[in-house]
Amino acid sequence: MNWDRIEGNWKQLKGKVKEKWGRLTDDQLDEIAGRRDQLSGKIQESYGIGRDEAERQVKEWENRL
Questions:
Q1: Which of 14, 34, 45, 64 stands the most exposed, by the fewest C-beta atoms within 10 Å?
Q2: What is the CA 48 to chain-centroid distance, rounded?
Q3: What pTM does this model have?
């Protein structure tokens, strides 16, 4: 699934994001609003990982959709 579709279906996909990255709060998910860079940044903050690792995880998740 391409990122435009993810962004357009964000409300439906928030549950899948929550399954993958359970430390993200509902408020953070609302703030992210489907923006890839915001998701990556929140993952970095919540999990204490680097940008490259966060991007890798997001890309892997995106490819699984």
A1: 64
A2: 15
A3: 0.94
